[in-house]
Each structure stands twice: as C-alpha cells, then as structure tokens.
Amino acid sequence: MSKQWKVYLSGEIHSDWRERIVQAASDLSVEFTAPVTDHAASDNCGVDLLGPEESSFWKDHKGAQLNAIRTRTLIRDADVVVVRFGDQYRQWNAAFDAGFAAASNKPLIVLHPPELQHALKEVDAAALAVAQEPEQVAAILRYVIEK
C-alpha cells in the first residue's frame, strides 16, 4: 500500500495554476489542500463571523487570524508545500507561508516566473526546488512519489 501524500498549494489566486497541478498529478496518490481562494470570503471572514470593525486594520487582523487557523494547520499537516508567486500582485501572504513552511522544516517547492528570481532569491534559497510551470511541480511530485 502506497502512502497518501498531502500537498499544500499556497499562493496567488488569480490564475489556474492549482488546477493544472491537480490535473497533471491526478493519477498520483496525493491529497491537495489550499487556503481559502475565494478572495471576498477570505478578506471578510473575520467581520462576517465575529462582527464588524470600524477600522480596516482590525477587519484585516480578524480575517488574517481566522485564515491562519486553516493555513498553519494544513501546512503543518503537509508532506510538501508548494508556494506560487505570480507577477500581477504582491503576495506577502505567500512569502509568509513559504517562511512558515521552511521554519516548520517542510519540503518546499517554489513556483514563479523567471523575472521574479531576484526578488525571491531568499525564498528560492530555502526551497528544495524552484519551478517555472505548474506541470514541473507535478513532475517533481511524480518523481518523489513514484521513484
């Protein structure tokens, strides 16, 4: 019986990179997890669940804390963490997730376009692999799971 791998997919939510990895790895024994990718739900969960805030700082603070329950739990439970950085938005949360994964001694795969290499050099240095395309991530998973 083979191991069921747990792979956490962190990072930008504005492209289909997660779906491409899941599709390319659909025949592998992998359970994929991710943060809440509904932007409005993620941003508003704190005030929706715990009540309104007058200050946007406290609104964001509540939401970040609630989202951290999911994120930290799933990263701690993961066998591998994949963090995607896109070129359209700054993903400070993705950088935090990469750092948390590295500090938690989780194998880290970073995914980003080549033009972000300089900005992400410290993140890349903490990763065990740096990929440019989602299909490369699936190929890495296939190699470590099947070989």
Order of helices and strands: EHEHHEHEHEH
Helix content: 40-55%
- Radius of gyration over alpha carbons? 16 Å
Strand content: 15-25%
Largest sheet descriptor: 5 strands, parallel
CATH secondary-structure class of the domain at 5-35 and 77-146: Alpha Beta
Helix/sheet category: alpha/beta
Mean pLDDT across all residues, rounded?
Answer: 95
Q: What is the CATH topology classification name of the domain at 5-35 and 77-146?
A: Rossmann fold
Annotated CATH homologous superfamily of the domain at 5-35 and 77-146: Response regulator
Q: How many helices in DSSP terms?
A: 6
Distance between the termini: 15 Å
Report the uncertain regions: none
Strand order of the largest sheet: 2-1-3-4-5
Strand elements, count: 5
Gross geometry: globular
CATH architecture of the domain at 5-35 and 77-146: 3-Layer(aba) Sandwich
Properties at a glance:
globular; 6 helices; five-stranded parallel β-sheet; Rossmann fold; 147 residues; alpha/beta; 5 strands
Description:
This protein is of the alpha/beta class and 147 residues long. The chain has a domain at 5-35 and 77-146: Response regulator (Rossmann fold, 3-Layer(aba) Sandwich). It has six helices and five strands; from the N terminus they run βαβααβαβαβα. Strands 2-1-3-4-5 form a five-stranded parallel beta sheet, with helices on both faces. Helix 4 (92-103) links the parallel strand 3 (80-84) and strand 4 (108-111). It is globular, with a radius of gyration of 16 Å. The two termini are 15 Å apart. The model has no long low-confidence stretch (mean pLDDT 95).
